[in-house]
Amino acid sequence: MRVVGAALAASLMLAAACVPVPRPFRDSAGTVQLPPQLGNDSVAVLPVDGTPGGGGQVLAEEVARRLREAGVPATADPEGRAGIRISGEVGGTAADGTNADMTRVTLFWVVANRTGDREAVTTGAAVPLGEWQLASPLALARLAEASVADLLPAVRPKAPPAPEPAQGGPKVALWSVDGAPGDGNEALAAAMRGALTGRGVTVVEEGAETTAVLLGSVHVRPVEATREEIEVLWTVIRPDGSEVGQVRQANVLRAGSLNGVWGQVAGAVAEAGADGVVDLIRRSRPDGEPPPAAAR
Question: How many other β-carbons are positioned within 10 Å of the β-carbon of residue 18?
């Protein structure tokens, strides 16, 4: 038996002027769309104050580029619509040990989101003194590389704590999610665990007594040169190995859109597919009759 979730019409916000965001599409009836990255996860990097030679904008662009390479939608357009804004300034320079040709540059960053939360991050790197004085691409690239490593934890979405499971509801063992690009395997598993718990399903460890087993798989198929289909399949099986059914979710996105951080996308996918998964779990009893639904 194959159970497929209802169509989800996702409204998208443009994450950044330099980051193309795929448009939503409506699949054939019965398929849940896979929503792309959402606007609150996007980042705007402002020009860095105190950079010599007017290099503050160039440094911001280099940081934004490296954030995009790490899977974070980012732009160096200070007027861009973004949920997170990063401002920075040069905190100072100092000689790098005994090497007179090198200087250590310290950068102070502030990461602010739409809710008003702010986080201070201090980064730095040693660069050739002459290159720094000219704000050369070499010096700015080295500083950007060192900065992004410390900025990533501040800009990546924080997963909300999973609610406590309801007592007396069905149980499922979430074995694994595989095949996803970026951090999708871990992000989807954590998001589906929370979505099922919130619907009265107790998610147990592999090997525990359970009503059913849930497996997740992600398939990426090229559609054309710059686009690809992302398909997510949730398969519910009984403890004896017989399949109960599947929930399928799919969308066509810009190629590489999910090669990094899935962020809120994982939560949206799990929420869209969880009702269908719960229905399959409740139908996994050997007699085929679903147990009473737990209160939500």
Answer: 15
